[in-house]
Structures are given as C-alpha cells and as structure tokens.
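B., you asked whether I could sanity-check this one before it goes into the benchmark set. Here's the sequence:
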Amino acid sequence: MTTTDSRPAPMSLPELAAVTARIADNVERVIAGKSDAVRIALITLLSEGHLLVEDVPGVGKTSLAKALARSIDCAVNRIQFTPDLMPSDITGVSVYNRESSEFEFRPGPIFANVVIGDEINRGSPKTQSALLECMEERQVTVDGMTYPLGDPFLVVATQNPVEMEGTYPLPEAQRDRFTARVSIGYPDLSAELAMVDSHAAADPLSELSPVSDEREMVAVLTGVRQVHFAANLRRYAVELSASTRQMPEVRLGASPRATLHLVRAARAAAALAGRDYVIPDDLHTVIVPVLAHRLVLTVESITARRTAADLLRNLVAQLPVPHGPRT
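And here's what the prediction gave me:
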C-alpha cells in the first residue's frame, strides 16, 4: 500500500523490526561479535544520519560499511580518500559537449543512496569540506547549479586515529555532520578464531545478498518519524546537550545540530527496540555515540586522560531523569 504521492506508507513497528533484524543478521555474517557497533550503525541509518567509523587499521571498518551497504538493494558508491583526491572527484564536473555546444553535468560518486568514504581523514581538508553540503543539505552545487541527492542517503565514512601517519584530523564542522561515531575494537579470542575458520577460505562480503531495498527503506524511515517523543523527554534531550556547553572540562560543547541528531537517534533506538514512543534509556543509549565526537576537551582534561565518553556518562548520572506521562 502506498500513499497518493507514490511514496510507501509508514511501516508498522513489527514490520520495521523484521526488516532491521534481517539487515543486522546480514551485517553480522561479516562483522561477527560486534553487535553493539552494528546496532549503532542501524540507529544511524534509521535516523537518516551519517556514520563515522573510527578505529585502527584491520579491525573491519570498511567491512562494516560495505556489509551495511550491500544489505540494501540500492545505489552504492565507494570513495577512496587520498591526499590528491579533488572535490570534483566527489561531486562531479561539468563537461563541454561539442555536439550540443553546451556544458553537461557528469555526477560524481556522491550520487548514490549509500556512499562509503574510505579513510576520509587521508583526504585534504579542501576535499573533506566537499562533503559538507552533501551531508547536511542532501544536495550538490556545481557551477551555480544545484542537484538533489537521493532518498535514502547515507554516508558511512571510515577513518584511522589521528595518531596514524598521513592523516588529516577532521575539523569540528565536518565531525558535527556525522550523526554518530562508532569504534569496532579488536574481537575477543573466540570471535577472532571463528573469523579465521570461516573467512580464511572465502570473503563473506562476496557472498552477501541484499535483504531489503530502497523502497522498503523509505517506508522504514517514514515509520521511524512517527515514533512519539514526549515533551518532557524533548526538554531532557536539550538539557543533556546544553549541559555539555557548561562543563569546565569542555572547550566546545554540543551544537544545536547535535541536539537534533540526539533526538532523531533516540527515536530510531526506540523503533529498533519495538516501541512507538521514546524513553530515557533510548537517550542514554545513543548519547555517547552521538555527542562524544563533537566535544572538544580542554588541554587540562586531555592531560588528565579524561575522555568525552566518560564526561557524558557522568552527566547522565548527575542530571535528573524526567518522570511522568508520555505526552
């Protein structure tokens, strides 16, 4: 059943749960033993945001991005960031056509439903900034012409820690565009042994088949937007973000955009849990992945080895949790 404008009708929660479970199971065929990272990736997808996967080389950052992309039958492009990559290599260029005597726009790899930006912090700051308009406004402007991007649109970017050689740290404005950041981490002994046994002979990515499609995902996203977010919890979400700006350990707190992403991610977490309403635990689940990468700590905090995640967990423990009816 579709709406009058030919867009799919909002998907019911049981159907939504079935679709997301299929996607999660599919991704975990490639990334075993990392259900928390897969869950945050799904929450980012359902909140119509963008995901930053940060970790050391070889732990499965690109595999997570590829597995998520291949689980949905839609347009997928991969961009390998290198120091000589130019902004036009991402957005596209206008080329002169001698036959028509006009310039024609040739779209770049950003024109896809899922875009994998591999090792984004190996690209120059100028190239990194080419993603800003695409990620926030879902459009590309080239030579004065604006071209809309598809729906759904998800950027999954991977990056190595800034201590690694040949990397450029993402500026604050770029990090703020990512809804969530997740680290995969090393697998435990049993998971790594299972990976050796099952992945040594063949690449599981090559055998991965889509379990959803573009139209179904549009219906899923429409269903997530219907999840109820009570007024007292919306205020609580704003208080969580605003409190980071008052912390003495933080030089730059969460932005209003971060608050919006926190609200959307909490709504997605509720839908993923099979509820049509948000509870405080949903905000607590997503606050570290959504806010930690946006905070800029003071030199004293860095010297004292304080982390943004620790500060946010302390904030959750100290700030009173609202109670009352879900209105």
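One thing to flag: Residues 29 and 51 are 20 Å apart (CA to CA). Otherwise nothing jumped out at me.
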